[in-house]
Amino acid sequence: MSEVVELAPAPIVFRLPGFVYRDVTIFLVGTMANWILFGILWVQAYLYYIAFPNDHRFLKLTVFLELSLETVQTVAVTHDVFKFFTIGFTDPVVINQVGTAWYSVPLMTGLIACLTQAFYCYRTAVLTRSKYWVALISMFSMCQLGAAITVAVQAKHATFLTRVLGTEVSLITIGIWGTSGLVCDVMIAAIMTYYLKKRDTGFKATHNIIKRLIRLSIETGSITASLAGISLALVYLPGHPPYYQIAALILAKTYSNSMIAALNSRVKVVSNAPAPAAPAWNEAGKLDHLTWRGAREIEFIREEETGSSSAYTA
After folding, report:
1. 3 state DSSP class of 269
2. What is the pTM of this model?
3. Range of the domain at 39
4. For 213-258, what is each residue's pLDDT tens digit?
5. Do 189 and 299 reside in the same domain of the chain?
6. In terms of DSSP bridges, do strands 267-271 and 309-313 run parallel, antiparallel, or are they unpaired?
7. Structural domain tally of the chain?
8. Distance between CA atoms of 78 and 99, rounded to whole angstroms?
9. pLDDT (tens digit, 9 = 90+) per residue, 38-71?
10. Does residue 6 form part of some domain?
11. Distance between CA atoms of 43 and 287, rounded to whole angstroms?
12. Pairing of strands 280-281, 267-271
């Protein structure tokens, strides 16, 4: 009588479709970039509160509000990425769920962008003394905020991420949101650059200050405008691949970092160390010995509006 040999069942290999791995990877990259910018933001905020303790309470409150909104966004995004890499292994449908993205991306980004643009709008008002430019900037800023809130409501009702861009109405709303923010950022940078150039008296000290402010205005405005434009362009790619999520996840952090960087641009980091000793060279022309006494202290020099300076020693 022959023996019956029982074969062990072959292991079941569970493979997800390729687009699932692509979508999760894109979201993970965007989340990691969000974390990095969040850390940079906290460092900038720490330096701001140390260097400018006598700033107006409104500015301090604005910085605190931006930090609070950014913290809410980062916590929500982190919650989603943990859910994708835990529950998502057994239930791939979770990866396509909206989760907290309906408020962590459009709503938080719209609020933070509006807050940052309001800060620059105030600066524009002080610089230009023009109600026309203030009204125009405010109009585009409120337009992008209203569109961002609308996108958040649409995403909440969509339930799944693939449905967010599935209707023509949502695409139009996203287009209004991105275009309004883009135009507002470009307008702020252009207006401040134009009026700062008009204030240039030609004196070296004034010219250097004006040049630094112009460069800062162009840099901060171009970064936020470029990222908003890239995010908007990626949304309208054929098939709507989720590459836009990377830009969308870091757009709010870009606004916050640019605003606090503008506030911290008043800081001058100087060293009070003595001049280094001259290096000694041998006859062969090679460096034989170099004596250098390193910096012992670093001072934060705050440029006050009155023209006086005060120092904070770190």
Report:
1. strand
2. 0.79
3. 18-265
4. 777 788 788 889 999 999 999 998 888 888 899 999 999 999 999 9
5. no
6. unpaired
7. 2
8. 11
9. 999 999 999 999 988 998 899 999 999 999 999 9
10. no
11. 39
12. unpaired
